[in-house]
Automatic annotation (TrEMBL):
Residue ranges constituting the DUF7344 domain according to the UniProt record: 28-106
Pfam families named among the record's database cross-references: DUF7344
Protein name (Swiss-Prot/TrEMBL): DUF7344 domain-containing protein
InterPro entries, per the entry: DUF7344 (IPR055768), WH-like_DNA-bd_sf (IPR036388), WH_DNA-bd_sf (IPR036390)
SUPFAM superfamilies: Winged helix' DNA-binding domain (SSF46785)
């Protein structure tokens, strides 16, 4: 897959992060998964959310259908992966914070840097645009 010149990450983009190579590798590893990117974009656009609502919105994007048209098994697959893998990875890196008592998920202190990279990776589309396209609204 080729990257358009305007979308290429310039070497100065990497230098601007002030990160070393290992940190850059971790950023790309964290953003390599579309569910993690979707969850971050949703939290940027909507603010803190109940974990179940976040899962529903990720499912709508992934399957391109409203939550009412997504099977319980399809939703469960996303719920489990978010619960067991994706949120944990984001929490470990202070990108999201989850209050286990209330079930709320919100952006953490390192989220700003990640959302800048997401815009470069996903072309800057807002999650609202992605949801509308996915749901053909």
């Amino acid at each position: 897959m080729s990257v358009h010149t305007s979308q290429r990450l310039e070497s100065t983009d990497l230098e601007d992060t002030g990160s070393n190579s290992a940190e850059i590798d971790e950023i790309f590893a964290l953003l390599s998964n579309s569910r993690r990117r979707a969850a971050l974009r949703i939290l940027v656009d909507h603010g803190p959310l109940d974990f179940g609502d976040l899962v529903d919105m990720v499912a709508e994007i992934e399957y391109g259908r409203p939550i009412e048209d997504i099977s319980g098994n399809e939703r469960h697959t996303i719920y489990v992966s978010m619960q067991q893998t994706h949120l944990g990875r984001l929490e470990e890196n202070d990108i999201v914070k989850r209050d286990r008592d209330t079930g709320t998920v919100e952006l953490g202190p390192n989220a700003n840097m990640m959302t800048e990279w997401i815009s470069k990776i996903d072309g800057g589309d807002s999650i609202g645009s992605k949801l509308k396209r996915a749901l053909k609204i």
